[in-house]
Protein 1
Amino acid sequence: MNRDELHEKLTRVFREVFGQPMLVIHDDMSAADVRNWDSLNHVTMIYAAEKKFGIKFSTREVQNLKNVGELVSLIDQKIP
Amino acid sequence: MLHYGLSELDYLDLNKGSRSLDLSGCRKTLKLALLSDSAPQYLTPLFKTLLAKNGVRAEIYEASYDTMELEILDPGSGLHAFRPDTVVILPSVQALRDRYNHFSGDKTLFAEEQAERFTSLWKKLRAFSGASVIQGDYVLPNEKLFGNYEDKAANSFYHTVVSLNRALRQAARPLNHVFISDIDHVAAYHGRRHWLDEKMWILCKAFCAFEFLPHAVQNIVDTLLSLAGEGVKCIVLDLDNTLWGGIIGDDGLEGIRIGHFEDGEAFQNFQYHLLALKDRGILLAVCSKNDLETALRPFREHPEMVLREKDIAVFVANWSSKAENIRTISRMLNIGCGSMAFIDDNLFERGVVRDAIPEMIVPELPDDPADYVRCLTELNLFETTAISALDTDRAELYRIESRRKLGQVQFEDPKAYLESLEMTMTCGRFDPFHLPRIAQLLQRSNQFNLLTRRYAESQCEAFMKDEQNWFPMYLSLKDKYGDNGLISAVIARFDSEAMNIEEWVMSCRVLARGVEQYAMNTLFEEAAKRGVRKIRARYEPTEKNGMVRDLYERLGFRRTGGSGDGPVDWEIDAADYRPQSHFIRTAHTLPGESV
């Protein structure tokens, strides 16, 4: 999966979980920039991403995530 | 009652669905309080969505994380102010593990102490609320210290959870307002190693892996729906390739597969399961495209058949459409299609019935008959919150009833028919023996139900004991075809000037038999005995109880309030009452028997 494809899939996850059909994600984006990205939905987003990409994040990886860019890199490392 | 197949319980879909719920089809509202020591925020949207899918609008009080004691013990708490219909107490095994690790006393006593914690919460809740309690049990932990020896090590955590679950069940058994939700069973079914998600527990105190949150909630919702009077009362069965392998019309009696012949054992196991359901009070009906005599032959003559003709309440075999036949069965049994499930191996027939009768439950059936029982069990269609001794006789009663209906055809004059039934009634004040059946009737009756109050067994018991203010009466009808059992209950309250009918339910099996007339005469006799001059009554409409809209008018009451589609109030002076005519004799009872 190339980075564009990955980006597109992750965009769909964000739009679904945060309930914003037009949301465009970018690497610097963090929780403060997205309506509904609270701690509750954060975990739901993590679950949705794990499901979508067929991967698992570790506890610490989830806790340390700072922005979309880091999430994209992490997924990129993990997908087979 | 709608039910999701297992694959359709998707957390993300349901969570998303909760944001835009369509509540227009909801017939009932339920006030539900959720107390948990995991994060309730992940559960609440699922309760809302799954209840709405089943026609129930849920108002949910979500207690903050780990505040069970505070909510229940503090009279100023949000829980007290909310006045819930049902309180769900859902504890998590991870929270229990924390407590266990911090417990400084003798760990062999920990389980007992925790059981006591919940039983005393149930008791305290009871002191200020009539709410039912649904108590989740604990999912057994995956970690073991002693391997197979674990259960002999009385201080191990695993053994602690086993003992605690057992103690909760034992404590709940005699209490008619507390119901255990067997979450551990659901977790074990899906696999505890997948269910328990330690990462999500650390991250957000989620009750279990997100994937399974809907399964935990659905299990509780099943009990909630049963408490609200929903449930499957009748299974309509196809015959060929459903109850036996092969086609009786083509293969003949010797050719069908049932018993120890090829996959005949699978069909036999399915029949044993159906028979067990019948014995616990679920009615079985047959709807088959066959000639009647051909269809009946296996039931009468095949030595390896488990189900016999007497087990089937209504047997329909002809060549007309199944949807039409199912409606006939529904009418004969007086059970709405929404309370019936249709089991047929044929994809086409399932589709036709589903289209024609959308409220009917029509599960997809697996290709292999060996999986039929598992399929039926997974759907958990037969949830209940009460069983009574009389329950098991119901199939027999309905069978007699459908025979009665066939008999009815020969009489031109309904009076002559009613007279020929030789009906006798036993009625009296509620008593401990009849309470379970009374409570069940109050939960289950939807059509002949004037106020739909759904009083629980414990409340009925309170009415029974308060002779000063309440006259709660049951009625039990026999006729020459058999015993109908306890078929009606009326709950009346006295105030200084009137007898007020607070609830009246009747089984639809005995409609148009004069039971209403008999009951009303008896109420007036009681009113006269107490010197009360008026009887007041009320009708509150629901989706299903239209048949009793005019009941009080027919009994001679006059309308005193209410209009349009809302509740209607009725009244009558004792002096104006004309005893109603009917053909029911009062049973003579021996001294000492219940009157």
Protein 2
Amino acid sequence: MSEENNSAPEQALICAKCDVEMKPGKVRASYLGSEFPIELLKCPVCGMVFVPESLAMGKMLKVEQALEDK
Amino acid sequence: MDHTKARERESQCIQEQPPECTSACPVHVNARGMIECIRKGDFSAGFAVLNRTIPFPGIIGRICDHPCQTVCKRIEAGAAIRINSLERACVEYGRGTQNKPLRVMKKDKKVAIVGAGLSGLTAAFDLASKGCGVEIFEAGRLLGGRVREFDAQLLPQLLIDVDLAALAELGVVIHLNAPVTNGCGGSASFDGIVAGFDAVYIGPGPHAVDHLNLNLPVTPSGRVKIAPVTYGTNNPKVFAGGGQRYYPGDYSPITSLLDGRLAAVSIDRFLQGASLTAQREQDGPFVTALYTNTQGIEPLQAVTMSITAQGYSREEAINEARRCLNCQCLECVKVCEYLAHYGSYPKRYVREIYNNDTIIMGSHLSNRMVNTCALCSLCKEVCPVDLNMADICLDARQSMVSKGKMPLSTHDFALRDMQFSLSEAFYLARHEPGFSASSALFYPGCQLSASSPHHVASIYAYLRDVIEGGVGLLLGCCGAPAAWAGQEELFHRTLQVMAEDWQRMGKPRIITACSSCYRIFKDNLPDLPVESLWTVLDNSELPWVRTDIKPQTMAIHDPCTARHDKDVQQSIRRIVAKLGVPLRELDHHSDLTTCCGYGGLMSFANPEVADKVVNRRIKESDADYLAYCAMCRDNFAARGKRVLHVLDLIFGAGGEDSASRKGPGYSRRHENRAKLKTELLHDLWGEKAAEKGPDMKLIISREVSELLERRMILEEDLRQVVRHAERTSEKIRNTKTGHFIARRRPVSVTYWVEYSCGDTGFIIHNAYSHRMEVVGDGL
């Protein structure tokens, strides 16, 4: 199982469709009517966004649960 | 849950009722709290607890007639705790400078106390503590009355003086050698005192007072007539008590103290113009509702004193305190990991759940607690007053759903699993092949079909064999997950579909192999004639006599949903006896059985607590377990407990060591159900399943497979992601590993899969999910 995919400098994440490297970019995450700005790797051409495992299973999960309990 | 109902349920829980010792004590000394301090060796704290209720602890610690000890629960396991001796020990070892009475605002009220026995002194102390100006008139030369008559070794005069010094500190004015009478010989006239003070308390001891001409009605024996509850006389300003009231009873120091206290309450209310009688139900000794279970407690006799005259030494007192049972009810908390996990008890939980349900702003912090209950009702079974947390939690869940406040993620997976069982992939309602009517309808339930589909096929063949008139088959889900999730509408809709099919098939009796389905039908569809597979099997010849069963003792586990189904429990035991397998009962069985961790969808809401529940259950016996619910079997097996299903004994389990077989994971459960349907349709009804292309082959290691289970990600979810990624090239390539990472959001969850292409299929390296949506990601 791989660890966080965008942390090690020697690896790059390439958008397979556009064949360009994913670059950090500002996106918005939304859940139950709340929106948050967040910086994630994004394809500069098609805009596909990558959500790493550590974020999905960590902070994102916590925020989801907190919003569900509102 | 409305406020009245919440209050009602809250007050039902008896855990906060006082222990026997406190309720039997006329002034309700917190003996349990005091002893708890001694147990920790903190005599000062113990003294403070005693002194909170008793104004003269030195005296009471020596001569209390301790009614507390006659009701002490320790009597049921040895001998009563010597509470009075422990009070003495608190005074001996814990009295520093005596608690200073709280200074309160002086009131413009004067009260006279006639007679300085324990009742008068207590009234003086209490009223002075409330800010009244108090004057004591005592005929004798010392304060204390009969307290002074005890043997000096038991109650030294000095100890009395130390206690009574508190009165002077409170500013009480003391007149000694001051007899009060309206007759001759007194130093003050009673009528003069009544006229000069705002209220008067008289406690002249047990003696007749008719010769004093007090202008108060007297009893035939010459004592003042005293009203019960208020301690009033026929003069509204005059109150009385002590030996005067309970004559000719024996001297009871603690009762005298009580009289002074309760009369002081009346005087204080009289001075304020308040009701003298309101809310006095728990004045004096009463019978507590607290239940304390003493079963299984090792009997222990009282600790003896090495020198009786000196009372307990510190060490002896601590040892005696250790015998205290620290009376609590907690019957439900003792048997339930869920109730224990949240560190409190139902009275508090009801309040918490009510608050959680009714808050408008802020977070609903108890959502998870509400959703963790297994709804198994064991708490009600052991509760002395039948309080059922299942009712409370289910009500709360239904309320959360109706208000749109149920967290979306909690039951989503379980409800989707239910929907799968109700979809074309599994749902089926058919008469037996060759029949146009059914005399019975077999309803195996979704979890047995998921766990061991081969048993479903075997039972169905057996039932067709032994029951005449055609045995139809109904594959589906009874709606239990929706009911447990508080989704009433979905639940009733599910039942409705099932009821309609049952009617369409001629209303045959239903035979179900699942205890949950059985309960759901019994409780919600009263017209539907439902029978348990186990009573059917019990009343028929078993399919064949197995000769390969090793007669090894097994421990039988009753599912929590069969808690009240005695006939089912007995049938199971008779069937197993016929099979020649010796059974052992677990500590908690039949109506006291425990949940396996699946009930109420606990394992979805709180896997940590569900683990505790299962782990506790599987440790009850070293023997292999025998279950008759597929979920129970699989939950135990998942934790490494050797366990068989009763059907394994009847129809065989297949494989070498079936007791160690793990149940299928979530994905395989879906597949098993779907396969069961297509195979039965093919084998029995001769129907060929619609042609479907071969499934995309996924290669998944055990490690990843376990991760998928924990994260509740199905292989079907993975296939959707990979299929989409391969079709659209919407995937990310990791230059270091060469793996692809792709995502798909079918409805409300985004699934991410890391995979690579192998020779024979796609190799899955990792998968995870989130519910939050990335805006503008093009999903």
